Amino acid sequence: MTTSATDYDTIILGAGAAGLAAGLYTTRAMLKTLIIEQLGPGGQLLITDEIENYPGFPRGREGPGTGDDDGAADHAVVHTDDRTLTAKSLIIATGGSHNKLGASGEDEFSGRGVSYCAVCDGNFFRGQDVVVVGGGDAAMDEGHYLTGIVNSVTYIHRRDELRATKVLQERAFNNDKVKFLWSHVVEEFVGNEALEAARVKNLKTEEIYDYNTAAAFIYVGFHPNTEYLKGLVEMDALGHVYTDIHMRTGVPGLYACGDARADSTRQLGAAVGDGITAALTAYHDLQE
Ligand SMILES: Cc1cc2nc3c(=O)[nH]c(=O)nc-3n(C[C@H](O)[C@H](O)[C@H](O)COP(=O)(O)OP(=O)(O)OC[C@H]3O[C@@H](n4cnc5c(N)ncnc54)[C@H](O)[C@@H]3O)c2cc1C
């Protein structure tokens, strides 16, 4: 336990599932806690239609509803935009954000047909034909959500098989509204005022052509939000923070949990469990 006076016992960065779970446990342990969140509480849940695999909720749960910092000798110092705060321990729970595809026109048509959030933007394309780029769980989940709103969903996938969980694959294959462009990549987004087509390339034939669509929903992976930790803590090549099973990083008093940490399964239940573990470990360490 540290001896110098600090503003808080623990500061938690991020109010997604992991950060909120950690906060619940640190406050119940009577640790003076501050959660710092750059947007609002919820994290990725805010852009998720439905969580079907959270234990205890057999009918699923709807998604929405459910600074910089540095290390000092004996406490953490967090610089936000307008103040400097100190704490005896710091829990990193800043999760991850979607990857961009990197196709030309992607930024130009963002908000005018190109979207990363089916739940937020799906309704704008009611009854129309849309594409989903990607072949993992998020693409399948959110594409399924879209089939309840739009006329058709075409998955554009660079491989000729999906990475997604089998049950999600089967659901897509059995849905009449779903089509696939296998072994295709998007080269460019084209249109005038709004998106009109995805210029795609068939990787097997090299053919390039315009595939008409009102919208493109992009789900091509995530990156951890840990840029601000570079040089402070050990991370893998993608920027996930290494921890032990107790969520301790190599820096005393610094913990990481949820999607931001290496070896996370990137699931809601795991993020909650990580957050609880991080909080209880921080509490335990502060008692010593
Ligand atoms: C489309 C989609 C569908 C999904 N479906 C499922 C599913 O069906 N089942 C399942 O189990 N999981 C699912 N997941 C994954 C699950 O939502 C995540 O594993 C979980 O929400 C991660 O929680 P987290 O708290 O670690 O991170 P996040 O939810 O990413 O929260 C991190 C928080 O930190 C904030 N933040 C970031 N940087 C900073 C900073 N510098 N300062 C302050 N705050 C910051 C962010 O704004 C955010 O609020 C899905 C995810 C997506 C995107």
UniProtKB/TrEMBL annotation:
Residues 8-274 form the FAD/NAD(P)-binding domain. Belongs to the class-II pyridine nucleotide-disulfide oxidoreductase family. It comes from the Eukaryota. One of its GO terms (biological process) is cellular response to toxic substance. PROSITE patterns: PYRIDINE_REDOX_2. This is Thioredoxin reductase. GO terms for molecular function: oxidoreductase activity, acting on a sulfur group of donors, NAD(P) as acceptor. SUPFAM superfamilies: FAD/NAD(P)-binding domain. Keywords: Disulfide bond, FAD, Flavoprotein, Oxidoreductase, Redox-active center.
